[in-house]
Design brief:
By secondary structure, this protein is α+β, with helices and mostly antiparallel strands. The protein is built from 18 helices and 22 strands. The model has no long low-confidence stretch (mean pLDDT 91). Bound molecules: flavin-adenine dinucleotide (FAD).
């Protein structure tokens, strides 16, 4: 855990003693990662050499210039949920933006907000709801950074209506050499923040793409994000307290429908028709295990209910209708939905029934996700199987078909929790124009189960590529699997990395490591 001689003092001179630490009591906390512990045991291996807390873009620039001068590496983080935020070598510092937590501007008329890196969704939503606006929040939880999430995937519960990561407007981006680049309208004098594009070439794709650069191309320090209309109460209508809470939206403007279909393909056809009819705010197939995890107040309760529940919950679509313009919009959309359900032989789950009581929380989750922390509890580890497809609804559902045999194999070995429902989380984005499937799995917090998980994950990416389908999350080294099947894009990304970060100081293994990974050990 070391920095080159003089580097710590140089950082201290810029930030002040109180905003840098190499105390193991502090740095240890940044060395652990929930998922890596059970996969390749990297977690906990390297503490960062220091953690720094900048307060401004200028301080971030100074830190990055010092890293270049002294040649050590840095990782910019948001709230540290993702694996690429832990160091994998001893000379790495973490740039933690906890002091950069302000909403700089909330422009009600032009419907956007300008945020610093540590502003969370809960924070931004609370402010934007006060003026009848909102933003979609990811299942990662509303506690994550708006900026980090938009740089990574930016796909949220309301993506059906509000769109999939269409929200990044202008940004301030500190490049890996410490220079400041303003992109979008902020790049033009006095043009401010309102627009994601600009005159001439726009480099927004370099900070975003499928899963962003994961801190491998410098640090974004300000971002304008699009806000969307919201007809709900000015204060989020939560009733009760954790672990027993729910939302209570005005019934004339918000309604959840839970619909059971005979097959996944019928469910998919209904989704297409919902998209063609341009109705609904949120549309998701809900996975059985997380629906139950969300409804269980304790781990014990989950395990008591799971053996029976997994037989009951299958092919269930949650459709949240919202009267954005008036209650009549909701009434109209309900009529259209009734017809679609009839056409595809769906069956509404009756309000107040056992399944409805368990699944209706999805309405609040679509708008402000608050239950995702419960996903981790039942088994110690949780994740999504594999390079889940991002494509048309039809394609994503077909990717789930080759994922389930891999999952089944793992639970037969006792490595994953059995899930006979084979139910996925299938999302609609942009009015069902495209979609994503996530088979949610639970597994033990041990190395054997972790190995099965990571091997299965890689296998699903290989299977998708074989079938010319689009897998997502080929993070870092996995890009060497997807790249050759897609015009060798990984070679181009490697060239961009070399060009922008020739000293390899910015999270060096991302977006693509310079060399392919060694073959996995047996
Ligand atoms: C249970 C679970 C559910 C998830 N569900 C969703 C989902 O529904 N939708 C979705 O979009 N994502 C989802 N994710 C993925 C991911 O965790 C999120 O995108 C999340 O936003 C990460 O936020 P964070 O603040 O913790 O970012 P971090 O984990 O801190 O950072 C994410 C990445 O971005 C880089 N980074 C962070 N800030 C900056 C910056 N200012 N400049 C440059 N690089 C930066 C980091 O180095 C890191 O590589 C999920 C993850 C988990 C674990």
């Amino acid at each position: 855990m070391s920095l080159p001689k003089g580097a710590y003092e140089a950082l201290e001179n810029v930030l002040g003693k109180e905003n840098i630490s190499d105390d193991p009591a502090v740095t240890t906390a940044y060395s652990y990662m929930w998922l890596l512990y059970s996969t390749h045991a990297q977690s906990g291996r390297y503490r960062p050499a220091a953690v720094v807390l900048p307060e401004s873009t200028e301080e971030v620039q100074a830190i990055i210039r010092i890293a270049n001068k002294y040649q050590f590496t840095y990782i910019p983080v948001g709230t540290n949920l993702l694996p690429p935020t832990i160091p994998v070598r001893p000379d790495t510092i973490i740039i933690d933006p906890k002091r950069m937590d302000k909403i700089i501007e909330l422009d009600e008329k032009n419907m956007y907000a300008v945020v610093e890196p540590y502003v969370t969704y809960a924070q931004l939503q609370a402010e934007s709801h006060k003026v009848g606006l909102s933003i979609t929040t990811p299942e990662a939880g509303s506690q994550v950074s708006v900026m980090a999430n938009n740089l990574f995937q930016g796909m949220g519960g309301m993506g059906h209506k509000y769109g999939f990561n269409r929200g990044i407007l202008a940004c301030d981006w500190v490049l890996p050499n410490g220079e400041l680049l303003k992109i979008g309208s902020a790049g033009n004098p006095n043009a401010e923040w309102f627009w994601g594009d600009c005159a001439g070439l726009n480099l927004k794709g370099l900070i975003r793409a499928d899963t962003g650069h994961c801190g491998g191309l410098g640090m974004v320090t300000k971002m304008a994000v699009k806000l969307f209309p919201y007809p709900g109460p000015r204060e989020f209508p939560v009733k009760g307290a954790n672990p027993d809470f729910e939302v209570d939206f005005p019934k004339d403007r918000f309604k959840i429908n839970l619909i059971k279909f005979k097959t996944k393909y019928k469910l998919a056809d209904a989704m297409y028709d919902i998209g063609h009819s341009e109705i609904a705010g949120a549309v998701h197939e809900e996975g059985a295990n997380w629906v139950l995890a969300a409804d269980s107040a304790s781990v014990e309760e989950f395990w008591e209910r799971w053996p029976d529940f997994q037989h009951k919950w299958k092919n269930i679509l949650a459709v949240t209708l919202i009267g954005f313009s008036s209650p009549r919009q909701l009434q109209y959309e309900q009529k259209v939905l009734d017809q679609i359900v009839k056409d595809h032989e769906g069956e509404y789950i009756e309000e107040g029934s056992e399944l409805w009581n368990i699944g209706h929380h999805a309405i609040g989750e679509a708008i402000r996700c608050g239950l995702s922390n419960r996903l981790y509890r039942p088994a110690g580890d949780f994740f999504v199987m594999g390079g889940f497809g991002f494509d048309s609804i039809d394609h994503t559902i077909r990717t789930s078909e080759f994922m389930w045999p891999i999952i089944e194999d793992a639970y037969k070995k006792g490595h994953f929790v059995e899930d006979l429902s084979h139910s996925d989380w299938v999302n609609s984005y942009q009015m069902c124009h495209f979609s994503e499937v996530e088979p949610i799995i639970y597994f033990e917090h041990d190395l054997e189960a972790g190995k099965t998980f990571i091997n299965g994950y890689v296998q699903t990416i290989i299977e998708a590529v074989k079938r010319k389908m689009m897998p997502t999350w080929p993070l870092g080294p996995m890009t060497y699997i997807t790249g050759p099947a897609m015009c060798n894009y990984h070679e181009m990304v490697k060239d961009i990395k070399k060009l922008l970060d020739p000293r390899m100081t910015s999270n060096p293994g991302y977006p693509v490591p310079p060399e392919p990974p060694p073959p996995p050990a047996e």
